[in-house]
Amino acid sequence: MKFFYPEDATPIDDISGLKPNWVRTQEELNQVEAENVSDAIDKYLIKAVKLPQSWFNVPTLNEIHRAMFFDVWDWAGKFRTAQTIPGLKPYQIPEALESLCRDVQFWCSKDSGMAPIEQAAQVHHRLVWIHPYPNGNGRFSRLVADRYLKAWKCKVPYWPTDLGENGQHRKDYIAALKKGDRGDYKPLVLYMMKCGAK
């Protein structure tokens, strides 16, 4: 069985953790993952969201990823053990996530000088950069960033539905993320605003 991924996506080389044994094609995998992610969106984004101080912590982040992919992959919500690009070394993941959680707690308790959309863009980028899980990090990071915005009663972006395919939307999105690698979050903020975030 061979799956195909767009440029700059993390490929799945090991499908031993795949739960639905009937999945044989990329289209079938996309379908079951989309259904699982949709259920997680209902759980974590449709209802009212409390301020990030109450939920932005490593156990809850793991729980969100687990909810997004548990029906499909047995590694859902578990940190990866192999190196990916992008992604920190596996042993760095727990401390990097804790550091992000501490930053979020600080932003929420002090006047950081950043608007919620700027904070959400940093949250999104840093989660992608850390790449905590074997796969699904982009979708996970977008859901968490959306949840962050909703917690502050901000309008969430309507992410293009074709981000998983090679095309201009993906190119612009990846370019914005790569600017974040150099500490420039403005392109990602602008991309999110172009998608409707406010």
From TrEMBL:
<feature type="domain" description="Fido">
    <location>
        <begin position="56"/>
        <end position="194"/>
    </location>
</feature>
<dbReference type="InterPro" id="IPR040198">
    <property type="entry name" value="Fido_containing"/>
</dbReference>
<protein>
    <recommendedName>
        <fullName>Fido domain-containing protein</fullName>
    </recommendedName>
</protein>
<dbReference type="InterPro" id="IPR036597">
    <property type="entry name" value="Fido-like_dom_sf"/>
</dbReference>
<dbReference type="InterPro" id="IPR013436">
    <property type="entry name" value="Mobile_mystery_prot_B"/>
</dbReference>
<dbReference type="InterPro" id="IPR003812">
    <property type="entry name" value="Fido"/>
</dbReference>
<dbReference type="Pfam" id="PF02661">
    <property type="entry name" value="Fic"/>
</dbReference>
